[in-house]
User: Which sequence fits this backbone?
């Protein structure tokens, strides 16, 4: 019975570790060095928090790029509207005598 219980406990432990563990292969030396240096200096060698920080920064940059693209698009639309030649408007005024006067604005 002890072997069966131990096996079940080991399976549960493996399952929990699999949910929160990540193994990465084929990482370039300089990238690994930069990553570990960042983890050591900023996150007390906590690789999980370092990875989370980098992913959050990536998401922030994506949002910033999206917003920047929208700002550029809006700026272009404004420029187009400002450069369009204004069509002169005419205003019709009816006098008491019935005569109509057109006034350009």
Assistant:
């Amino acid at each position: 019975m002890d072997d069966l219980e131990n096996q079940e406990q080991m399976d549960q432990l493996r399952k929990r570790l699999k949910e929160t563990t990540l193994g990465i292969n084929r990482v370039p030396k300089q990238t690994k060095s930069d990553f570990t240096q960042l983890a050591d200096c900023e996150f007390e060698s906590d690789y999980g928090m370092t990875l989370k920080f980098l992913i959050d920064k990536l998401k922030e940059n994506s949002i910033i790029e999206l917003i920047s693209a929208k700002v550029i698009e809006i700026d272009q639309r404004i420029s187009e509207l400002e450069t369009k030649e204004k069509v002169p408007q005419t205003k019709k005024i009816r006098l008491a005598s019935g005569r109509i006067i057109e006034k350009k604005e």
Summary: DSSP finds three helices and two strands in the chain. The mean pLDDT is 88.
